[in-house]
Fold Orotidine 5'-phosphate decarboxylase.
Amino acid sequence: MNYSQAEEYLHSFIDYEKIPGISYASYGYSLKHVEELLHRMGDPHLAAKTVHVAGTKGKGSIAAMIVQVLIVSGYRTGLYTSPHFHTLRERIRVGSNLISEEEFAALMTEVKPYFEAMNHDPLYRQLTFFEVLTALAFAYFKQKQADFQVLEVGLGGRLDATNVAEPEVCAYKPNLAFYEALGIEGLIILEKTIKYMPADIPIIGDAKRGDIGNTAKAYAKALFSTLGFDAATVNPYLGFDSIEPFISYQDKGVFILCRTSNRGASDFQDLSCTGGLSLYEIVAQKVKEWNIYGNIGLVVGATYPEELKRVRS
């Protein structure tokens, strides 16, 4: 088939991007059929190391930046994003090059029999537009012998087709505020989210707690014992007694806010203190003193490289 025919064939699959308010639950949905499809194709999704980018904002920008870092580091890198602006081929690229019309058509012709076989197998659900395109992207990255594949989630959630890959993730960091805003239901969702995360990947509770006495102890217990986070972000500005309950969990990580990247951070963090040091530098010094168990880290915004140098010194 030529490119137009390949594109037309792809659009013959149901496209949930164009169906608002779709509920996975109402369809008894899972990713078993996608996993089976890829297994029949030779597991192309496992051929390269994976960076999986998810979230509510900035996914495309972050994915593009990661790709550039990997390219500069000498790695052949594939990028899979959605949606597209002008051409479907924008979603699949290696390096700075989009998949060509000829490559798209040839690859679709090659893998079409797998799609047809899956859709005629009564044991599995019908494939969707996004699942077919995701499988095509994996096959292309394998064909191009990519070292890394950077994947941006589509509709997101635990049933996004990109979840079949095995990402090289350093940590997950759920922001508790977005769950707490939903009340009891949000906390239930948070617990489910934590349970879904791989057991061998650290989970950081982005809580930014800062309080004293029994209140700090309660926060520490909630984060580390009740919810089971491996680490948490905390606020140091009430002093050591607000930090001590957290660091007393010697097998847990504590990341202390030092020089943050929000717009108003300089109102206090840049204030000059004794000895000509800024407040954030004083925080860094104190953290070094407090780190008796070796379980404390610092939060320093990546948008402030010069400040980061001073903190490290």
About this structure: The mean pLDDT is 90. The chain has two domains: 3-164, 176-312. Residues 176-312 form a domain with the TIM Barrel fold (CATH 3.20.20.70).
